Amino acid sequence: MDTPTPINKSQKLHNVCYDIRGPVLDHAKRLEDEGQRILKLNIGNPAPFGFEAPEEILQDVMRNLPTAQGYCDSKGLYSARKAIMQECQRKRIPGVGIEDIFIGNGVSELIVMAMQALINDGDEVLIPAPDYPLWTAATNLSGGRAVHYRCDEQADWAPDMDDIRAKLTSHTKAIVLINPNNPTGAVYPPEVVRELLEIARQHNLVVFSDEIYDKILYDEVEHVSTGALAGDDQLVVTMNGLSKSYRCAGFRSGWMILSGNVAKQRAADFIQGLNMLASMRLCANVPAQHAIQTALGGYQSINDLILPGGRLKAQRDITVEKLNAIPGVSCTTPKGALYAFPRLDPKMHPIVDDQKMVLDLLLQEKILLVQGTAFNWPEPDHVRIVTLPWADQLGDAIERFGRFLSRYRQ
Fold it and tell me: I need a labelling partner for 77 at 20 to 30 A (CA). Which of 36, 86, 234, 360 fits?
């Protein structure tokens, strides 16, 4: 009998990777199956660390369950989209109507949908390095090519505009901005966003603005939405949702907003593509959409966590303090989000394979981090640390990381 032909994955997946839940996590699961406890600092999942959704959001979802059993409009519930439209008005994003809003099963689904609707084979998308790797994966999966522009650690991780200009080609179709940034925690001031928008305007690029952390801000930093700074002739696609600011990660409820009235007329065919893809998946999770109106219109409990004395700020502070106390490690202070992205000085810590380093840390200390190259950072000299555990637990974990580094050699 002939040997059966192997069943291989699609070749479209050859350039797709998402190491936040990658091979090292598989080792962590194996250790957990053996009964060992792992401190998972690899993913921004608030619930396991005691960050629960506000009670009024849960109540609204439960009370609406009897009427949430059927499909809804492919773009989402009218009441939820109306609340998002009013949030756009609050954030001064002009010209956003009900039909300019798409609700998805988390921002992740919408990122993939937007790339599939826009990208042809060979098109290029400018994506920050470091990035949230789903942007790169979705671009590659759609047949495009992710081109990474450098963010400058010495300038609070701001985009390097000269590097962006150098990487523009006739194939460049769009540019991605992640603000507040994952993994660095940078929050870009308006003048930085305006400069990036001007480059995009000059080269007729669609601007994708990932703003899922827009309410998780420290040290009185303000976030200004990209859509509020763009001209009416620029198409800005803004992504946001309930996962982080409202601690509803498992609800999978996110939204995508199209702004720029003149640009939307020019983008009618692209928008038709978005409508087609939204219809093909019928609709997003209906019960979770009932959380949106209450979340956006109710008491913003996230403020209690990010202000002085708040738990998230305390955890951010201890993370930065403990990392900078490790010889050969430096960490730019995150101004937002739930992460730190420290640098390991290659002279003191000459890491060649950062994924192996993260695996060795897991095996020796039972701490799970993500290597910097998983975020498309080109050198093996960074890691991302999630700042969600209690401050004392974080402080202890980072001290153990420091002791690990002091004896670790590759």
Answer: 234
pLDDT tens, position by position, 106-124:
999 999 999 999 999 999 9
Cβ atoms 283, 253 nearer than 8 A? no
Reading the block at residue 151, the tokens are 């963010």
- State in Å, rounded, how far the first CA of the chain is from the last one: 47
Residue that the structure tokens 């506000």 belong to: 54
**Mean pLDDT to the nearest integer, 358-376:** 95
User: Residue 127: beta bridge partners?
Assistant: 148
Q: 355 to each of 20, 29, 161, 254, how far by Cα in Å? A: 11, 16, 29, 31
Containing 79, the helix (H) or strand (E) segment is: helix 78-90
Whether the CB-CB separation of 60 and 294 falls below 8 Å is answered with yes
Question: How far apart are alpha carbons 276 and 104 in whole angstroms?
Answer: 14
Quick one: average pLDDT of 300-320? 95
Nearest to 193, CA basis, from 224, 169, 162, 171: 224
Q: CB burial class (10 A; 0-12, 13-18, 19+) of residue 56?
A: middle
The CA-CA-CA angle for residues 46, 21, 292, to 5°, reads 40
How would residue 21 be classed by pLDDT, with cut points 50, 70 and 90? low
How far is residue 155's CA from residue 159's CA, in Å, rounded to a whole number?
Answer: 9
CB 260 within 8 Å of CB 71: no
